[in-house]
Amino acid sequence: MLKLDLHRKSFAGQTVLEDIHLDLSQGDRIAVLGPSGIGKTTLLRIIAGLDKRFRGTCDAPDEIALMFQNPTLLDWRTAKENLQIFHPKSDEADVQNALRQVGLADKADHFPRQLSVGQQRRLALARCFLTPAPLVLLDEPFTSLDPSLRSEMLTLTRQFLDRSHGTMVLVTHSQDEAVALGASCYRLHDAAQSGAELVAV
Questions:
Q1: Helices 147-164 + 117-129 axis angle, to 10
Q2: pLDDT tens-digit profile of 102-141?
Q3: Residue 64 backbone dihedrals phi, psi, to 5 degrees
């Protein structure tokens, strides 16, 4: 499913990540914790294939669902169109069902600027899971949400994962989020004289 052998990742000669190895099977869920700036998002970008400038290898599925901390919606597209443009093979019923599952069935024709921050996050979640992908990458999507919305988003995400049996890598500051999603926890920490290493919690 996902096999990563990352020997070294550096920026301007400075080692950021070193000797990180992952071997995940279908349905595995892990969370990567650590302080800001330690390299969590960099690690996720490497897994997603967005950063290929590293020493090592990464074997990941071609189909990946990726959700960032920011919703990254297209402002000039409606909620429905934001789903359709990324999932052109999905029919109308699939799109409507995805919107219904995140509580946005009545917002299909609204533009992102007409949605609250919480609604935008839920739309991004629907976009991420509309077409089940074998690998799901989540980059702190629950940060800065109020407790009730955070709990709602975590519940929706776990339900999606339970249905799709996708493999998940979550980047987060919160071990509580990892537990809520049924993920095994790993922590990135600075190693002496080298980049951050990944250690099981």
A1: 10
A2: 889 999 999 999 998 889 988 998 998 887 789 999 999 8
A3: -130, 135
The edge-to-edge listing of strands for the beta sheet with 196-200 is: 55-59, 2-11, 14-24, 196-200, 184-190, 29-33, 167-171, 135-139, 64-67
User: With a threshold of 0.70, does the pTM exceed it?
Assistant: yes
Tell me how far apart the alpha carbons of residues 118 and 186 are, in angstroms, rounded to a whole number.
Answer: 28
CA distance 88 to 15: 40
- Long-range contact list for 60-64, CB < 8 A, 24+ apart? 60/2, 60/3, 60/4, 60/135, 61/1, 61/2, 61/133, 61/134, 61/135, 63/131, 63/133, 63/134, 63/135, 64/133, 64/135, 64/136, 64/137
| Position 170 pLDDT exceeds 80 | yes
Q: SS3 of 177, please?
A: helix
